[in-house]
Design brief:
The protein is an alpha/beta fold and 416 residues long. Helix content is 37%, strand content 13%.
């Protein structure tokens, strides 16, 4: 798997390095809340001291000054999962009015409505814009809850909260395999987690936890089942494209033991694809006027068998949800992919085909465009795209890159 070592210590130094390397796509940087927290207090499962909170706020301000458009949070991931709402409100309050708070919210299953309410509260108490990332309802027992979550969002908009959401057009999610383990097992960092996963008493307790719904932990493994968890990537390349149930059968282990084996032998690096969502929820969120289309995909070139959304998100929307299912019109779909994200992130010169706008253009055949990808064979060029232009220069023709990187790091407008 591809890795890049970065020796800098500030966001400005990070952007200086990425600017030197250039960008394949246009780039809108956000500073991660988890990054701020690690820098201030490591992987501790506790409330920050006043000094640590101030340190996070100072680091946030440095990043925003350097060029970040706002702050993102991943509240199912350690250390974000250890944070409390007040911590996030204080950070959001330090951002300028034009900045945005984008969040992978704290839960998308049984705790979905509470998690949405938290994101809305952060926006309301800080008077900052909110982006709920890849909004969905996970687990069969929670299917349909997007009807209620969207009602909460609409009510917040009427109260003056400037909130948006995005969606990807698949019923499978993808993230680190280690997120199947409750947050308490991650406290203290990787070595502490691995120690817990090799301790018999700790493992016995974990096995019981993973077989129970629980109150606070979003137990996605229980929702999906071991046969619906597909390994996407590992450090060694082992197990890629296999479900946990298939791995268990090949190793002669129980499914739980197979999960632990993969996590420990690969030192918590594996990513997974997990089938958890319902098509009706995907379509409901997609139709909302303030829903943008996003892939939630990792950067290409990292190896393994990544979620097909990495290569197929936008062609799939145009084929399945425009041409086949009539969920969106072509005009609506293109708007949700282009002008709406530019509005959300306050980018001035992209997103529209108009005079004095940047000539970023895609030529596609509406009758043939399709993702044509498989979860076990996802790294393929989608169908129906003739060429791509960035800033008036041809960068892709017939599925192949042509020439140098033409993407750029974009700049935040101070006003909408």
């Amino acid at each position: 798997m591809w890795r890049h070592e970065f020796a800098g210590s500030t966001f400005a130094e990070f952007l200086e390095e990425t600017d030197k390397r250039g960008y394949v796509t246009n780039y809108v940087p956000l500073v991660g809340h988890g990054t701020l927290r690690v820098a201030a207090m490591g992987m501790d499962d506790r409330t920050p001291t006043a000094q640590e909170q101030t340190h996070m706020e100072d680091l946030l301000e440095e990043a925003l000054t350097a060029g970040a458009f706002g702050m993102s949070s991943g509240l199912i991931y350690p250390p974000g999962t250890y944070s409390e709402t007040d911590e996030l409100v204080k950070l959001a309050n330090r951002m300028p009015e034009a900045a945005i708070y984008a969040s992978h919210i704290r839960g998308e299953g049984s705790t979905l409505l509470d998690a949405v309410s938290e994101a809305l509260r952060i926006g309301e108490e800080s008077s900052r814009r909110v982006m709920i990332s890849h909004h969905k309802a996970t687990g069969k027992s929670n299917w349909g809850k997007t009807a209620t979550s969207l009602e909460l969002i609409h009510a917040a908009r009427k109260r003056g909260v400037d909130v948006y959401q995005d969606v990807y057009p698949y019923i499978a999610a993808s993230t680190y395999l280690s997120t199947l383990i409750p947050p308490e097992y991650h406290a203290g960092g990787r070595d502490a987690t691995l120690a817990r996963l090799t301790d018999p008493a700790s493992l016995a307790r974990l096995q019981t936890q993973l077989s129970d719904v629980g109150d606070a932990f979003d137990n996605r493994l229980l929702d999906a089942g071991y046969d619906n968890v597909l390994i996407a990537s590992t450090a060694s390349g082992a197990f890629e494209g296999m479900t946990l149930a298939e791995i268990a059968a090949s190793l002669g282990k129980t499914a739980f033991d197979a999960l632990i084996h993969v996590l420990v032998s690969e030192r918590l690096t594996p990513t997974m694809i997990i089938f958890l969502m319902d098509e009706e929820d995907v379509e409901r969120v997609m139709r909302d006027d303030r829903t943008a289309i996003g892939s939630d995909g990792l950067a290409p070139g990292a190896g393994g068998k990544p979620h097909p959304r990495l290569f197929g998100t936008f062609p799939r929307v145009l084929s399945r949800y425009v041409r086949e299912r009539n969920v969106l019109t072509l005009r609506q779909a293109v708007y949700k992919m282009t002008a709406l994200p530019a509005e959300i992130f306050r980018i001035g010169d992209v997103g529209l085909v108009a005079t004095e706008k940047t000539a970023d253009l895609v030529a596609f055949d509406g009758a043939t465009i399709a993702d044509d990808l498989d979860y076990r064979d996802p790294v393929r060029v989608p169908k129906g795209i003739a060429w791509v232009m960035q800033a008036g220069e041809m960068v892709v023709r017939n599925g192949k890159l042509c020439g140098d990187r033409r993407g750029k790091r974009l700049r935040l407008l101070a006003t909408p």
